[in-house]
Design goal:
This protein is of the alpha+beta class. The protein has a single domain, classed as Nuclear Transport Factor 2, Chain: A, CATH 3.10.450. The chain has one helix and four strands; from the N terminus they run E-E-E-E-H. The chain has a four-stranded antiparallel beta sheet with strand order 1-2-3-4. The longest helix is centred in the C-terminal third of the chain and has 22 residues. The termini are far apart.
Length: 95
């Protein structure tokens, strides 16, 4: 009998109680910063949200620094188009 690999437990995201998290992906997490994209439901509407939290030693927890909601596919297409347009400039500047 082969042992199945243990499923990784996902951490609870530090989001408002009104948001029902359906699924999420951590983009990166360090001891000081946590960035994630989540699919959530808020007041009966599904949304995609991008969060950036910073660890706060005084609070002993994560504090939201940025949040962006994507409500419609056309919004995402416009955001993606703009980011793709600027991406070569970043590569040039850092490379």
């Amino acid at each position: 009998m082969t042992e199945q690999p243990k499923q990784e437990q996902k951490e609870q995201l530090p989001v408002d109680e009104a948001i029902q998290v359906i699924d999420y992906r951590t983009i990166y997490k360090t001891p000081k910063w946590w960035c994630a994209v989540l699919l959530g439901n808020m007041f009966g509407h599904d949304k995609i949200m991008v969060y950036l939290w910073q660890w706060n030693d005084k609070m002993g927890g994560w504090k939201r620094k940025q949040k962006m909601g994507i409500n419609f596919e056309k919004d995402w297409e416009n955001i993606k188009k703009a980011v793709d347009e600027f991406m070569p400039r970043i590569r040039t500047a850092t490379g």
